[in-house]
Amino acid sequence: MAVPPAAALPAPFLKWFAERGWSPRPHQIDLLARAQNGKSVLLIAPTGAGKTLAGFLPSLVDLANRPKRKPGEPHRGVHTLYISPLKALAVDIERNLGKPVAEMGLPLTMETRTGDTPAHKRQRQKLAPPDILLTTPEQLALLIASKDAERFFAGLHYVVLDELHSLVTSKRGHLLSLGLARLRRLAPGLQSIGLSATVAEPDALRRWLVPQNPPGMMADLITVGGGAKPVITILDSAGHVPWSGHSARYAIPEIYEAIRRHRTTLLFVNTRSQAELLFQELWRVNEETLPIALHHGSLDVGQRRKVEKAMEANALRAVVATSTLDLGIDWGDVDLVVHVGAPKGASRLAQRIGRSNHRMDEPSRAILVPANRFEVLECRAALDANYLGAQDTPPLVEGALDVLAQHVLGMACAEPFDAGELLEEIRSAAPYAALDPVTFDRVVDFVATGGYALRSYERYARIRRMPDGRWRIAHPHVAQQYRLNVGTIVEAPMLKVRLTRHRGRGGNVRGGPVLGEIEEYFVETLAPGDTFLFAGKVVRFEGIRENECYVTSAAGNDPKVASYMGGKFPLSTYLAAEVRAMLADPSRWHLLPEQVADWLRIQKDVSVLPHREDLLVETFPHGDRFYMVAYPFEGRLAHQTLGMLLTRRLERAGAHPLGFVATDYSLAVWSLEDMGRMFRTGALSLAELYAEDMLGDDLEAWLADSWMLKRTFRNCAVIAGLIERRHPGQEKTGRQVTVSADLIYDVLRTHQPDHILLQATRADAAAGLLDVKRLGEMLSRIRGRIMHKDLDRISPLAVPIMLEIGRESVNGEANEMLLAETADMMIEEAKGTEQAG
Amino acid sequence: MTTFSEAIEIEGETALCDCSGALYFPGLDLLAVSDLHLEKGAAFARRRQLIPPYDTAATLARFAEVIGLYDPKIVVSLGDSFHDGAGAALMPDAFRAELSVLIAGRDWFWVAGNHDPDAPEGIDGESVKEIAIGPLVFRHEPSRGPTPGEIAGHLHPGARLVARGRSVRRRCFAGDGRRMIMPAFGAYTGMLNVLDRAYAGLFDTHGLFACMLGRRRVYKVTGSVLRPG
Asked: Which residues contact residue B159 at a Cβ distance below 8 angstroms, ignoring those fewer than 6 apart?
């Protein structure tokens, strides 16, 4: 590629740099030059490389050179739109960018617009737009769906997309890509600038940034190499590394010592409950009462803001956090990152480690703390990968149809649209480049009348065709409905957790502060009197009233109910392969802690360790049951799906399976019949049991009734606008007046199984909750490579998963069984009473 | 047939709680259903929430099945038979015809509900505020205080059990031997836990039981093991 001519910085910029003894970095000048040549650009750079300033430099220079608006001249509309995945990030940027803008005395205005922006300010922004508007994808969707979108964005020159790598992989990214396509129509010369951390496939992001007509067009790419290599170690604890579990309790003294030796430590975990547990354990040993705080998405907003403020002021020594702190918010002087639990992906680990030490020339410091033995292997693999600079960010997927439906309705709210023109516009967005006209027509039909074969809703249409063929909304009420339901983030139903002082009165209490929010499904498993960890303390469950969960402070330190919901993030394919490679290669075991290496050696002696491409299947008796344990290392979701399908097949083969449990690494099925003997005698063929055709009919049959599919359907239905979001205050109307998504799902599946929303649901589930794609790849890989080991007792490798049994529930028919058991138990009781009486 | 239902007594009258949610009295040859909420999908669509229009077909199919099973002389629909006042009049003709076939040759009573206070337009059967048959009285909303022999609906009772860290929630018949509140029958009807405040004072707390609807069975559980929420 030819080197573009060096861009000239205007005087105020040169002066500003010079006064500070700085000079602009080469990639900042490079980006400016390309932008000034009319190009869209993707900038990939590590944290601390001056990414933000680089992204805004073209706008700032352009605005600095612009003649002043004369009095009486109309407002010029937004010049630059900045979009970030987090509200907090937009606010952060306003502060960080505001400083140089003020110091250079640039004649420009800059404002944020988020869900928190008061109505009067939004109104004013529409009349007198700022030059630079900092906002989120949801706000963009609202802005382009309003009637004055055309005027508002007519003067738009640049759109800056921050943390693009994290945005593009979700449905939010799909919605944003459609918004970007609309912006390009409203402002034809629009250039986009994407800012991203390192990703596996930069070209996918380069296509995402520019219109796909002709297909395959790409934005320019500027890559800034990594700074100093991070210094990462795996905690080599004197304590016993547990076989299973996720608490890392064994390592608490060493973690505390590390906190003591550093200025500010950021501790990352994978789930909220792990964060709670770690926080509690640290305070238990916190003899010096170091200021250690907790930060996760379920905590009350006020609480979170307090922690963020304290971090900014460097008033904290440590913060325990979940992914809410993942993204590029720059708070305080973090000099150590501790990652508790396995990182699940090499790229995620690299980004989290990037939180420490925001200066590129100094190495980041990080300690990995595996919570159990398999996690030791995973951490080791991730660490090697990080040193090699391996990337395993997920690939981009095709745009979701529920998101498309939402966008189509939004576009009708803005102004009447011509279906053909809108399709062309939509296909310019990379995720929807392959959208076919038939599918698009079905989506439009869905938006209009629900897309039902039984066409009884024609008179209730939300959008209608006008005589000139264009579609318009049927009633202003539709636009109002759209505004209330915009966005792609569907929260699991949550209950407020309120701390009260009245014990033992069920839900018949009032008052007390709100500690935060908790998932409804978790609360449903609690009985009054149960204790659990929340907001850093042990609380006692008292009862539910309306949408609030009442708790009291509980004495003691040991909560009765542990809530570990499996990690949100599946083990990346890349890391899984690395873990298998390490297992297969004894020459690498010296890198592992001695107790873990020993564990593998014993496994090698009493059973076998599989080759990196093989699947090991062990069978053995234990207690009065027979077990089959497989080690695919494909992540919990894929294993769960595999477990469901294997049990169906084993049932048919007469093995009488009783249940199964899945972890990120392995899968255990237990049964009444000896599966080992069945394989030996040929009564059951291992190759047939694991044959790929299970993804056909068996999958379909099981899916039909799966709770996972119902949950996925609910999300799709909310995003597509079929059912309305629950808004605060509406929960009180109770279950009996709303129609639950589960009921709609059942009815729709029976009467119109090919409905477009069910199609979208299946696509989502296959990619997400079920991980069918990954399972399919695995089954095809292991064809003819299954290694069966029939043992007379449990193997060392099987111990971790055997310890998980009983902690996890098996869904499906089990609910009916549970009902039957309770009822039958009472019948037995009743009989006993009769006999006694 | 017994596997699909659970026999109980109300004021000495034997009743079968069917797993479909219908209640059959062999002694009276009477079948009762409650809260059909026919045309609920259409009612939502009128407010431009376009949920699938198949609920009426689904409800009628289950209704036809249970009527076929017991072939009752008398049928009582305990109110909220239609989701709103416009429901019956605007119902597609195909459903109207299906309903006529079920009604033909039986004594059929539409009890008035809060959603459908007026007689369903253009549909056979007798409309009543409430109706007394034998020791029983059928009305939509349960009366406050002890009312022996009352069979009501309106509240959409549901029950919840928790065991082994799991929670199971089902529609249910709620009773105490004196009176009964029936589960909602309609395909789009939700439920309200029998331990909710709305049920306060209706049942004798010690005698309360719930017949929870399973897929092929009815599970009778005593009130003491139920959970709120």
From this structure: B169, B170, B172, B174, B193, B194, B210, B212, B221, B226
pLDDT one-digit tens code per residue, A622-662: 888 899 999 998 888 788 888 888 988 898 888 888 777 88
Q: Are B35 and B189 in contact (CB under 8 A)?
A: yes
H/E element holding A721? none
* Number of alpha carbons in the 13 Å side-chain half-sphere of residue A167: 26
pLDDT digits (tens, 9 = 90+) for B28-80: 999 999 999 999 999 999 988 899 999 999 999 999 999 999 999 999 999 99
CA–CA dist A837, A186 (Å, integer):
84
B45 to chain A, minimum CA–CA distance in Å? 6
Nearest to B213 by CA among A622, A317, A181, A823: A823
- Supply the pLDDT for residue B56: 96
Strand-pair partners of B59: none
Q: What is the pLDDT of residues A701-723, one digit of tens each?
A: 776 666 667 778 888 999 999 98
Cβ-based contacts of A724 with chain B (< 8 Å): 49
Q: Which residues of A fall within a CB distance of 8 Å from B50?
A: 449-450, 452, 457, 460, 462, 722
B171 within 8 A of B157, measured Cβ to Cβ: yes
CATH architecture of the region B2-225: 4-Layer Sandwich (3.60)
Per this entry, what is the length of chain B? 229
- Residues A372 and A800: beta-carbon distance below 8 Å: yes
DSSP string, A779-832: HHHTTT-EEEEE-SS--GGGHHHHHHTTTS---STHHHHHHHHHHHHHHHHHHH
**Phi, psi of B10, rounded to the nearest 5 degrees:** -125, 115
Tell whether A564 is covered by a domain: no
Instruction: Let me know if residue A700 belongs to a domain.
Output: no
Strand, coil or helix: A290: coil
The full set of domain ranges for chain B reads 2-225
Of A474, A521, A747, nearest to B52 by CB-CB distance is A747
Residue A329's pLDDT band, with cuts at 50, 70 and 90, is low
Q: Does the interface predicted TM-score (ipTM) exceed 0.85?
A: yes
pLDDT digits (tens, 9 = 90+) for A54-97: 999 999 999 998 887 777 777 788 999 999 987 777 888 888 89
Task: Identify any residues that bridge with A630 across adjacent strands, giving them in sequence order.
Answer: A617, A667
Residue to substitute from B5, B39, B46, B51, interface A, most A β-carbons within 10 A: B51
DSSP-H helix ranges across A263-418: 272-285, 301-312, 346-353, 373-388, 401-414
Give the pLDDT band (50/70/90) at residue A776: confident
State the total domains in chain A: 5
Sign of the C-alpha dihedral computed for residues B147, B150, B152 and B156 taken in this order: positive
Residues A681, A608 share a domain: yes
> Domain of A346: which CATH number?
3.40.50.300
* Cis ω for the linkage preceding A513 (within 30 of 0): no
* Domain range for A139: 11-223
Q: In the 8-state DSSP scheme, what is residue B225?
A: G
Q: How confident is the model at residue A773 (pLDDT cuts 50, 70, 90)?
A: confident
Q: For residues A333 and A338, what is the distance between their CA atoms, to the nearest angstrom?
A: 15
More confident residue, A102 or A75: A102
Rounded CA-CA distance A269/A6 in Å is: 44
Answer yes or no: are the C-beta atoms of A446 and A177 closer than 8 Å. no
Taking residue B92's Cβ as centre, other Cβ atoms within 10 Å add up to: 15
Min Cα separation A757/chain B (Å): 11
Residue A10 has pLDDT above 80, yes or no: yes
Give domain status of residue A823, yes or no: no
A197-210 residue pLDDT tens: 888 889 999 999 99
- Is A808 found in the same domain as A791? yes
In the structure, what pLDDT confidence band is assigned to residue A461 with cuts at 50, 70 and 90? very high
Q: Are residues A25 and A166 in the same domain?
A: yes
Domain assignment present for A126: yes
- Residues A27 and A160 placed together within one structural domain of the fold: yes
